[in-house]
Amino acid sequence: MGITKNDFVSQNHDTAEINTLLIHSDDVVNNRIVNDVAPPINVTTTFRYSSNPEDWIPWADQTPEEKEKLLNHDFVYSRLSHPNNVRLETNLNNIFDGYTTIYNSGLSAFNGIINYINPKQVFLPDCYHGIKSICKIWERNYGTKVYNDIDEIFNHLQEGDLVHIENPINPFGTVIDIKKYIDYAHEKKAYVVWDATFAPSPIIKNHWDFDPDFILHSLTKYYAGHSDLLAGCVVTKSSEIDTFLKNDRIYLGTNIGNLESFLLLRSLRSYELRVEKQSSNAKKIVEWLADNKDKFNGNIIKVSHAITQRKELANKNQDVSFIDNLFNEDYTTPVFSVYLKDFNSCKTFIANLKYFQHATSLGGVESLVELRCLTDPNIDRNLIRISIGCESPKDLIKDIEQALKKI
Ligand SMILES: Cc1ncc(COP(=O)(O)O)c(C=O)c1O
């Protein structure tokens, strides 16, 4: 299974399929001094300047090309750039088919975007609570008006505003009609950020078909995939914006660390295999839960995921094309939520699971559950978020079944 890239920046970029790109598209920056197959870990924070005094050009006198060479090839100080962040960006430019700036977390990535846009107004749908908290800081410090209802764009959106769309939505696993919001935002000359953390490639058909201005990923989740590093990225189609973000990143102090870069590169090599497995597992488990929901003494109130959302809409003869247009046929998002009857039932269910770890986050090879109100202040207390890993789906279903029976 593979995704063929579209033609953006293709003159510089490899046109192979995603699983080949993940493993080979940073070969072009293989270090000539060592011949390691696994990229070396560069732990240094600082780099010796050239030994030739002719090369010592004051920063203020350097041309953009000289700065570019210094940052991407010669290196100065690892807060500015280092070999492994450059290597990662080289790889991800191919995967995302755009210009990628990498950060030390998903929230740092959003922080980079909001500092670039400097909006007077921000519009948010249901989304990750950390993004809402950054917007609250902007409201507190700069008087930015924050709307916590994305449909308010149809009443209040103005040029230069920021519209943040998370699709699929954390923690529900459901989707919104992203194109409708993006088209309207562009009519008004506002910027759209698509947080696609819950549906990285190749789950989504092609993110650029929907024409967002920025794509954001918490790479901590699926791209890292082993619950052992924090990272984020912003992708744009504009090299000017990319340069701007990278310059700001120097002074916001949000570049990814050396060791995390190395771990993330390692993870990219197996990314597609993992996501394919997580996605097919999730399909089986959501379908099983939806089919068997009523067999547990009324303990399951609702299963929330794009698959159940689609069924509900189709049963009411409502439009489902915005869901079908989003996903590649064989993929779905591996995160969903289950609402149980009450808080105690949630505790009993979670306490009796054998394979699902009770922890926040998602996207790792191990399946997780989370009583979401433990970290999200605004959520229904009876909602359990489930992130499906790479275990056998049969074992995961058996585990869920036995824990539900204990309620
Ligand atoms: C949808 C979404 N966006 C952004 C983030 C923030 O990412 P990070 O934890 O890497 O800062 C998260 C974290 O859970 C998330 O779920």
TrEMBL record:
Signal peptide: none annotated. The keyword DNA damage does not apply. It holds the Pfam family Cys_Met_Meta_PP. Keywords: Pyridoxal phosphate. The modification N6-(pyridoxal phosphate)lysine is found at K221. The keyword Thylakoid does not apply. Belongs to the trans-sulfuration enzymes family. This is Putative trans-sulfuration enzyme. It comes from Hanseniaspora uvarum (Yeast).
